[in-house]
Every structure is written in C-alpha cells, then in structure tokens.
Amino acid sequence: MYELNLPTYEVQLRGMREKPEIFDFLRRRFVKLTPEEWVRQHFVHWLVEHKGYPKGLLGNEIELQVGEKKLRCDSILYDQQALPKMIIEYKAPTIALSQKVFDQIAVYNQLLHVDYLVVSNGIQHYCCKMNYERNSYEFLMDIPDYKTI
C-alpha cells in the first residue's frame, strides 16, 4: 500500500492478493482494503493511540439520510451525550484535497452541525473549527488532541 504521513500501527490483513481485507477495529470486522480504507484505518488508529480520542466515541461508515437519499460519513466522533462532534472525510493518497472534498463534508455538516470538520488523504490533513454564531470557520494548524476539544 501507500506510505502515509501518519504513524504506523500493527496492521491486520487477510485474504488473497485479489481481494485483500484490513481489520477495522471500530467496526470489529475485516473490510475490503482500498487506498481510502488504508488511510481511514491509519488515521483512526492515530486519533486513538496518539491524540487520545476514545475508541468508543468514534464510528466508521455512518449512514445519513436526506429524504430518499442516503449519504455515508467516513468517520464521526461523538461527544459523551452521543451527539456528533467531528466529521472526518478520507480520500486515497493519490486524490488531491480539493474544494470538491470540502464541499462534500459541508453537505454532511448541514445535517449534523458539528464543531469540527477534518479531511485527510493520509498525506495532508486539514481541520476546520466551525463558528456558527459568526457563520464562519477557522482552519487549525493541527488536528487537536481530544482533551482540547
């Protein structure tokens, strides 16, 4: 797979070369290994192991529904009251983090109204803190540690 700008961890893989799978420790099952999934697993491990995010407050592949349309958030961090606090969108390392990516996460946030939006392709990571009173956002220098959010 790809070398990322994230710490390594003990990756669990299985399956044949044509259909490899990676263990998702949040969903507690093996899932299809894609470049985006490679980024997701490394990023979530980094949040838990290095940034102090509680594993039990994170969810992967969270489905949202807008009328008849179903959307899927890559990862969501919840607060202690099970309210969404952060949306995380992943792209493969070969995908640029363009305005289109930020537009995609903004659509999810119209439904969830979270405090933080994060996008990562495993090489670059961006985090915005939302300010709903001023109808604005601020890009942060780094992904915050859990204790500071």
Walk me through what this model shows:
The mean pLDDT is 95. The chain has two helices and nine strands, in the order βββαβββαβββ. The strands form two sheets. The protein has a six-stranded mixed sheet with strand order 4-5-6-7-8-9, sandwiched between helices. Strands 1-2-3 form a three-stranded antiparallel sheet, covered by helices on one side. It has one domain (13-141): tt1808, chain A. With 149 residues, the protein is an alpha+beta fold. The relative contact order is 0.16.
Task: Provide a concise account of the structure shown.
The chain is of the alpha+beta class. The protein has helices at residues 35-51, 99-112, and strands at residues 13-14, 21-24, 29-32, 58-66, 69-78, 84-90, 116-120, 125-131, 136-140.
Task: Give the helices and strands, then pairings.
Elements: E1 13-14, E2 21-24, E3 29-32, H1 35-51, E4 58-66, E5 69-78, E6 84-90, H2 99-112, E7 116-120, E8 125-131, E9 136-140
Parallel strand pairs: 6-7
Antiparallel strand pairs: 1-2, 2-3, 4-5, 5-6, 7-8, 8-9
